Please model this.
Amino acid sequence: MPLLGERAQLTEPDWAAMVAKLAPHAAWLAAKAGAGVEQLGETRVRELLSSGAKARLDDLLAQDRALEAEAASIENMERLVRYNRDLALLCTNFVNFKDFYSGGDPAVFQCGTLYLDQRACRLCLRVEDAAKHASMAGLAGAYLAYLDCVRKSSDQKMTIVAVFTAGDRDNLMIGRNGVFYDRQGNDWDATITKIIDNPISIRQAFWSPYKKFVRLIEEQVAKRAAEHDKESDKMLADTATTTANVDRAKAPEAKKVDVGTVAALGVAVGAIGTFFTAILGYGSGVLKLGPLAVAGAMIGVMALISLPSVVLAWLKLRTRNIGPILDANGWAVNANAKMNIPFGATLTSVAKLPPGSKRDNRDPYAEKGFPWMRILVVSVILIGGYQWYRGTLDRFLPVSFRASTVFGRSADPAPGNK
Model:
């Protein structure tokens, strides 16, 4: 039977009465000794008590306590040896970054070299969480590429971040593949999974506006081509429907001319004409000053177009800092470890031809183009021969080569002597 007898509910006084009845058992459990060895069983416990094991253990503990000072000295000596071996290495890599800036052996945080897009990136760090790392590493102002690395021979995997400090970014995109060699010489298959876009070099910043302009034109051309393709498909469908229902078709209504469209086209044509007139007028003035003035004007226009991009890139490249990259990796780095333009160029090597070698740009399977050069050469020969036959070139030629001598006749008067 229950302690309080049969009942459908439990009141607060009933609960207090039940706790009071169980209190002696709780006190007995609290005072019970040997609960830790109870699971061994009574037989085993009595064997241990009669074997004298406790006295032997107490003797061993007493010996350990007697050597406590010697053990502490050994521990301190080990700490001193480790400081002597590792503290200087730690300081030269995370305090003054001597190893990083000296250009000799790589710093301890550099985990290997990435070969990708004809470049060797030596500033690579191992990353545990790419998304978390990118949230802070973006403050470094550098072009960062996160890559998943896999070793096919052992199915090992890891994630790294590579800093690109030289070359262009045109062919760097998510999904691009490369090869990563760690510091032990092991090779890994690397694939770009995330990019933090920042300027890489002044050269890339100078040509960036023109590349963007070309990409914009290509996108607009592709867009217009897609629209025209869609219109062509619709026109074909409408023509097919009209042909199939030619007996039911009504006479087409004459389309009304949209006056607003005509006016807009007129304004656009006028603006374009004014623009080209101004350009040609300015160009004719520059052409009168000579070829140097034309070249200077062209250089000035290019500099004016590229100057904002170059200045912005120069400011960012001057302030590149590896501190946020290390801090995002869990290192409490307080130093402002900058990577300026000259130093950054040493961290990424761009592939070059070996000394004494040259490229063979001849394509044996190239398509034959229109022979403009041959036509031009033949035209110049024909025109020159005709002018020589007429005698126009006699005043520039020796007597024996003049048309009057060769053909035995008087030459036609030159246009300027009529």
In short: Residues 111 and 125 are 5 Å apart (CA to CA). The first strand starts at residue 112 and ends at 116. The chain has 13 helices and eight strands. The first helix runs from residue 12 to 31.
